[in-house]
Amino acid sequence: MRTEFNWHLTAWKSLGRPSPGDIIWETELLNHSELVMRKRAYQNSTLYATFPRDPCDSYVHCGGNGNSVLNSSLICQCLKRFVPGSLENWNLKDFLKGCVRRKPFSCRNDGFAKYLQLKLLDTTHNWINKSKNLVECMAKCLSNCSCSAYTDIDVRGRGSSSAIWFE
Q1: Would you say the pTM of this structure is higher than 0.85?
Q2: Nearest Cα to 166, choosing from 132, 138, 125, 135?
Q3: Where are the beta strands (DSSP E) in the chain?
Q4: Which domain holds residue 151?
Q5: Could you tell me which residues are beta bridge partners of residue 49?
Q6: Domain shared by 32 and 61, yes or no
């Protein structure tokens, strides 16, 4: 998703001198947004810190259809109905291949599994509607075989916005 905005905070040089200082916090777009702290000096900058701080904060650390759980012996787990894409890599804690369906997808019989408290998926292949509630969103998703997920995106809990992802 592109917004064409570059958000950043710049420290003042000093309390009595409110002009841009050397330290800057900014969002850097590499593969996905990441918060970084830099010290600028002329044309060069030194990277001081980046966020996310733990593997579960990194986008797609567990690959597609995987879930990161910090207090688990194996930090990545496959969602219901999915298995590791490469069991050999998974056992070596290389989760980049993510998880694949346990059974081939059947448009008519699969339905959807409910997941709570997960980060939203990549927004490359999705559709957002600010006026459809969750029931309407589910009906639209069930009528399209390329629909892979749907959710309520109204964080206030009023259920007036939804998103659908397509494979």
Answers
A1: no
A2: 125
A3: 8-14, 17-29, 33-41, 44-51, 66-68, 76-78, 82-84, 99-101, 126-129, 147-152, 162-166
A4: 120-167
A5: 37
A6: no
